[in-house]
Specification:
Layout lengths: L8 H12 L4 E4 L6 H8 L7 E8 L2 E8 L3 E2 L1 H8 L4 E3 L2 H8 L18 E4 H4 L3 E5 L5 E6 H8 L2 E3 L2 E2 L1
Parallel strand pairs: 3-6, 6-9
Antiparallel strand pairs: 1-8, 2-3, 2-5, 4-10, 7-8
Length: 161
C-alpha cells in the first residue's frame, strides 16, 4: 500500500479474514441493487444473504444483520434496547458515516465499520453467509461459524417474515 492511500472496504475485509485465517470466496459480478438481484447473480438462496442495515437506535447508530429473506422487526429492536425511537439511516447519513452506498454495506462492525454489530438469529440457521463486500459488484461467501468468530456480534432475534 502506498503511503497516504486508504484501503478500500473490500481490501480491509480481505485483510481481516486473511489475518484471522478465515477461508472465504469472492465473486465479482454486475452491479446488484436488491437482495434478490444479489442472490440471483450469486446462485444462492435468498436466505443465505446477509442484509446489513444501519439504524439509529435512541441517539446512536448501530449495524444490524439479518437474512436477506426477512424484514427487520423494529419493535423487537426497541424492546431489546429499551428505547422508543429507531429509524434507518438516510442515504446521506450512510454515505457520510461509511462512505458506502445502500446495498453495499458489509455485515461487519469494528474494525471494518465503526458500529456495534447485532446479528439476527436467522443468520445462525444457515451454514454459509454471502454479502456485498463494500461495493455493488463484489460478493464474499464464508461459513457462518467463521463469520461469527471474526465479526463477534451480539446475537438476538429481530426479524420477521
Amino acid at each position: 500500500m502506498k503511503a497516504g492511500v486508504a484501503l478500500s472496504t473490500l481490501d480491509r475485509i480481505r485483510q481481516m479474514f486473511d489475518e484471522a485465517g478465515i477461508e472465504y470466496r469472492e465473486l465479482h459480478h454486475p452491479p446488484t441493487r436488491t437482495s434478490e438481484d444479489s442472490a440471483r447473480v450469486r446462485g444462492e438462496d435468498l436466505r443465505t444473504g446477509g442484509k446489513a442495515l444501519l439504524m439509529k437506535v435512541g441517539g446512536e447508530f448501530k449495524l444490524f444483520v439479518l437474512s436477506a429473506a426477512l424484514r427487520v422487526d423494529s419493535q423487537a429492536i426497541r424492546r431489546y434496547f429499551d428505547t422508543r425511537k429507531t429509524r434507518f439511516a438516510s442515504t446521506e447519513e450512510l454515505q457520510e458515516l461509511t462512505g458506502l452506498l445502500p446495498g453495499s454495506v458489509p455485515p461487519l462492525g469494528r474494525p471494518i465499520l465503526p458500529f456495534d454489530l447485532y446479528v439476527d438469529e436467522s443468520i445462525t440457521q444457515n451454514t454459509r453467509i454471502a454479502f456485498n463486500a463494500g461495493s455493488m459488484t463484489d460478493s464474499t461467501f464464508l461459513d457462518v461459524e467463521d463469520y461469527l468468530k471474526v465479526a463477534k456480534p451480539t446475537v438476538f432475534r429481530f426479524s420477521r417474515t
